[in-house]
Every structure is written in structure tokens, then in C-alpha cells.
Q: What sequence folds into this?
């Protein structure tokens, strides 16, 4: 399946802003000159993507985050110098588009700095038509997938806990993700 990527014509020139809402917050993997807490409106962070590579396999999928429609999402906007733009986009495509489950889009994000400015940022939004789109899973289904998930980038549990630590560092609460992380810390069994 071909990756859903932006054409150069639709991408603004100059420095590049990248919006991180999951692992990009705690492991961006690219050079940047500034990072600012930011809010994206119109999509929310959700464990809605079955992971077949990084945090699971097709036989035992894990769960990773996607931006899904509706609501808002707090994350981090990274400003990348124009001279690193091409290399950064290539890196992100290799990392995020392994199975083409995301659409590469430009979204308005509001920087939570003194100026409260709005910038256009590169973001990865889940493709709801993709086979890896999990949709809205119950907490029991989420915990089962996260506990079983282990892929090229390690255990799915580590991914969830690292994301929650990054959110905590920003003073940001994601109720469902924090609840899931608490259960992973305690290894609490779910009651039926």
C-alpha cells in the first residue's frame, strides 16, 4: 500500500514544525532547534493503531497512538531548521510510514509559549481505512494488546509508560492513557 505523504508543493518553505504526540515527544530522533508545548485542535491522541512492526507483530499486535478525528491533543512542536528539513522528513517517513497506516498532513497547532502563536506543523494522522486502524477499543482490549505487544522497537508496555512520562513532564493528563499506565505499573488484572 503506498504511503500517504505530502507533496513538496503542499509543504510550506523555511523551517519545518513537527507535531509529536506519542513517541516523538520522548524520542524525536531528528535534530531540532526548538521544542514548544503545543495543542492541535480537531484530532485527539488515541491508542487506535495495531502495531505490526515497532511494538507488535501481525500475529500478536501491540497498540500505538494515532491522531484520530475529534477533540484536541496536547503534544510538543519541534522546529527543525530549513537545512535539515529534507533529512528530517525522510527520517520521519521511514519511521512512521513503515506500513502506511498514517496520513502525512500539515495541521495548525497553537504553541503554548508567550506569543501563543499558531504554526503549520507536519503531523501523522491515522488512516481510518487502513487494516491496522483499531478504532475505539475497550480498556480491557487495550491492556491485552499492550501486554502482549513486542516488536522491533521493544515492548509495547515501555512505549505506553514512556509516553505517559513525557505527558507528565508537560503537566498534561490523558485520562485513559494514564489509567492504562497505572494498570501496567501495578500489573493490575482487569475484572470482567
A:
Amino acid at each position: 500500500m503506498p504511503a500517504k505523504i505530502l507533496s513538496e508543493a503542499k509543504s510550506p518553505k523555511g523551517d519545518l514544525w513537527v507535531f509529536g504526540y506519542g513517541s516523538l515527544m520522548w524520542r524525536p530522533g531528528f535534530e531540532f532547534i526548538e521544542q514548544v508545548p503545543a495543542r492541535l485542535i480537531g484530532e485527539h491522541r488515541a491508542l487506535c493503531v495495531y502495531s505490526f512492526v515497532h511494538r507488535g507483530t501481525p500475529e500478536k499486535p501491540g497498540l500505538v497512538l494515532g491522531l484520530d478525528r475529534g477533540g484536541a491533543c496536547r503534544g510538543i512542536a519541534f522546529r527543525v531548521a530549513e537545512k535539515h528539513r529534507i533529512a528530517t522528513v525522510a527520517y520521519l517517513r521511514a519511521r512512521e510510514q513503515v506500513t502506511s497506516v498514517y496520513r502525512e498532513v500539515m495541521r495548525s497547532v497553537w504553541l503554548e509559549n508567550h506569543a501563543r502563536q499558531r504554526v503549520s506543523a507536519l503531523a501523522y494522522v491515522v488512516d481510518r481505512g487502513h487494516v491496522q486502524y483499531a478504532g475505539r477499543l475497550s480498556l480491557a482490549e487495550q491492556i491485552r494488546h499492550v501486554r502482549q505487544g513486542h516488536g522491533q522497537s521493544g515492548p509495547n508496555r515501555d512505549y505506553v509508560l514512556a509516553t505517559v512520562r513525557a505527558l507528565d513532564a508537560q503537566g498534561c493528563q490523558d485520562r485513559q492513557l494514564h489509567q492504562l499506565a497505572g494498570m501496567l505499573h501495578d500489573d493490575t488484572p482487569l475484572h470482567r
Remarks:
- Strands lie at 16-20, 34-51, 62-80, 102-111, 118-126, 150-151, 154-155.
- The CA atoms of residues 108 and 120 lie 5 Å apart.
- The domain at 8-184 is CATH 3.10.490.10 (Hypothetical upf0131 protein ytfp).
